[in-house]
Amino acid sequence: MTTRRASWRTAACVDALVVGGGHNGLAMSHALSQRSIDHVVIERGDVGQAWRSERWDSMRLLTPNWMSRLPEHAYDGDDPDGYMSAAEVAGFLSAYATKFAAPVLNHTSVLRVEPARGGYHVVTDRGDWHCRALVLAGGAFNTPVVPRVAAALPATVTQLTARDYRHPGQLGNGGVLVVGASATGLQLAQEIHASGRPVTLAVGEHVRMPRTFRGRDVQWWMQATGLLDQRIEEMDDPGRARRLPSPQLVGTPERVTLDLNALRQLGVTLVGRLVGVRDGKAQFSGSLRNVCALADLKVNRLLDAFDDWARSHGVAADGRDGRLAATLVDQPPRLGAAFGSDIRTVVWATGFRPDHSWLDLPALFDRHGNLLHDRGVVAPGMVVLGLPFLRRRKSSFIHGAEDDVRDLVAHLADHLDRTARTGVGLSLAAA
User: Fold this and answer.
1) What pLDDT, in 10s, does the model give residues 212-260?
2) What is the pTM of this model?
């Protein structure tokens, strides 16, 4: 205990500390500055580091450029209907940090956060900090989710996650199994197939969506109809709403729709969910047809809702429809593929999860290791940003940070005011 108290005394003190220098952390930094709250932003690399080093080369945003905005900062280029590359997103964030002189401490890794008198003790590889308020702004896409079946694959099979993948040149010759059919899985399957490698795509639950509908980007419809502003408390099943996969979209100059039918037409083999490995073969679920039928049903309901909204609001719609044909599935379904002959590489496009392993507060996690929070409020003086459907459907989007930050900075300011009045937030010199 004596050693720990000594380390607290030598820590630098700040009212609020933000972990993560991406769009969420920078938006919160701006909000804290607007309220004259002393703070620092801790970033493990450069601003927007994940966009610089953890995206494949051809990756682009799924949202058009006109949606890319942060408080007092918006896209101002000459291609509002285009889709930013990862490098362009990093530049967009760097410009924001420079514009408002965000107090970012770059190339600093948080090693541990633990409770301390009047707040939290933050240990980094460049010194310790004490803060009365803490913002977890590292985002939701830190650690690739790899299913347990990966351990059963033969040692001769090369395995990559979507975070490790950069371009097809990384892959050896032979067939490639892409596991996961959300936006990432579809894009990687298309790119790898174009390199001349046979590709099999394992498909589970997915969300179909056309790139454009009646002449407008589908994200225009999502925003105009209010779907992106839906709040988590409006959902019948909040947990499921937060677990929904990302829609099957791709950002291209031609605004093309990328779906399972498009991949099938190119020659990609569609199979059901990867359920096991036996005798050197991958085993696939036979439910592909039902999974696709459900996705077809849901996208048609969504487009019907867009049409209903347009009629009720007097919105003129382009005559082009944008409806998607029913997903074509081979019958009978393919239930297996041999590793070695059919598949030599597996690319896991099975999603990501946040990394809060440095948060030394076990009571804040459920039995599955998920951070517990109430619409972003984790504990008194601690908030999290950027998780899917945190407060609104748009919470994990770049433009979704503004509303969430406005709500959560109010919680932090109230906490700081209250602790200052009650004397709980005494400086460490008095500890």
Assistant:
1) 999 999 999 999 999 999 999 999 999 999 999 999 999 999 999 999 9
2) 0.93
Do 145 and 393 form a contact (C-beta atoms < 8 A)?
no
Which string of DSSP letters, residue by residue, matches 109-165?
-EEEEEEETTEEEEEEBTEEEEEEEEEE-S-S-SEE---GGGGGS-TTSEEEETTT-
- pLDDT tens-digit readout, 174-204: 999 999 999 999 999 999 999 999 999 999 9
Question: CA-CA distance, 95 to 91, in Å (whole number)?
Answer: 6
Q: How many CB atoms lie within 10 A of CB 153?
A: 18
Instruction: Name the pairing type of β-strands 212-213 and 216-217.
Output: antiparallel
DSSP codes joined into one string, 363-392: GGB-TTSPBP-BTTEEETTEEE---TTSSB
Helix axes 86-99, 23-34, angle to 10 degrees: 10
What distance, in Å, lies between the first and last C-alpha atoms of the chain? 12
Residues 6 or more apart from 421 whose CB is under 8 A from it? none
The domain locations on the chain are 2-142+354-430, 149-348
Per-residue CA distances from 386 to 135, 284, 383 (Å): 11, 33, 10
Q: Residue 264: which H helix or E strand, with range?
A: helix 260-266
Q: Is 87 helix (H, G, I), strand (E, B) or coil?
A: helix
For residue 42, the SS3 value is strand
- CA-based torsion, 235, 241, 242, 247: positive or negative: negative
CA nearest neighbour of 162 among 407, 350, 322, 395? 350
**Domain boundaries 149-348, corresponding CATH code:** 3.50.50.60
Q: Which H/E stretch holds residue 404? A: helix 401-422
Q: Is 9 helix (H, G, I), strand (E, B) or coil?
A: helix
Neighbours of 235 (CB within 10 A): 14
CATH for 2-142+354-430 (3.40.50.720, 3.50.50.60, 3.90.1300.10, 3.20.20.60): 3.50.50.60
Name every residue whose Cβ is closer than 8 Å to that of residue 13 and which is 6 or more positions away in sequence: 129, 130, 131, 427, 428
> Dmax of the chain from CA atoms?
74
